[in-house]
Amino acid sequence: MSAEHFLLDTNILSETSRATPDPQVVAFLQGLREGQAFVSSLSVAELERGIHALLPRQPHRAGELRAWLERQILPVYGAYVLPFDLEAARAWGQLTTSEAARKQPPARMDSLIAATAYAHRLTLATRNTADFLAFPIAVFNPWLP
């Protein structure tokens, strides 16, 4: 694995909660050195939202996901969670008013995550590369060979 630094999209993290995660994604994550992968606080928010949304309907699954987040994700990436800070806010203002973003407006959370990657000069690792085409950021899909 190169010395490239990555911002892991929420779908990368979520993949690791599956009973049988995609082997390509597992290999990608295992190939990263400590400090080479970062997580947006917005992805943590999306995971929290998902857990809380499941509570009324599937409390057991919500508990499993809570345990996964607390025991597997936060111990590994907790020190590498990036806030949506001033630099990301300025990047978001710039990126979302670009011609490409105006032609095909991205989802709000995607645009905030893209701005975080842009502000910190990170490659965004995601399955949904098409969602980030409007942004001048490098993207990488670990599901592809």
Automatic annotation (TrEMBL):
Domain annotation PIN: ranges: 7-129
Top-level lineage group? Bacteria
Keywords, comma-separated and alphabetical:
Hydrolase, Magnesium, Metal-binding, Nuclease, Plasmid, Toxin, Toxin-antitoxin system
Q: What are the GO MF terms of this UniProt record?
A: hydrolase activity; magnesium ion binding; RNA nuclease activity; toxin activity
Residues that coordinate or bind Mg(2+): 9, 110
Entry EC number(s): 3.1.-.-
| InterPro entries to which the protein is assigned, alphabetical | PIN-like_dom_sf, PIN_dom, Type_II_TA_system_RNase, VapC_family
SUPFAM superfamilies, alphabetized? PIN domain-like
Question: Into which EC class is this enzyme placed?
Answer: hydrolase
Kindly list the cofactors needed: Mg(2+)
- What is the documented function of this protein? Toxic component of a toxin-antitoxin (TA) system. An RNase.
HAMAP family from the entry?
VapC_Nob1
Q: Which family does it belong to?
A: Belongs to the PINc/VapC protein family.
Q: What is this protein called?
A: Ribonuclease VapC
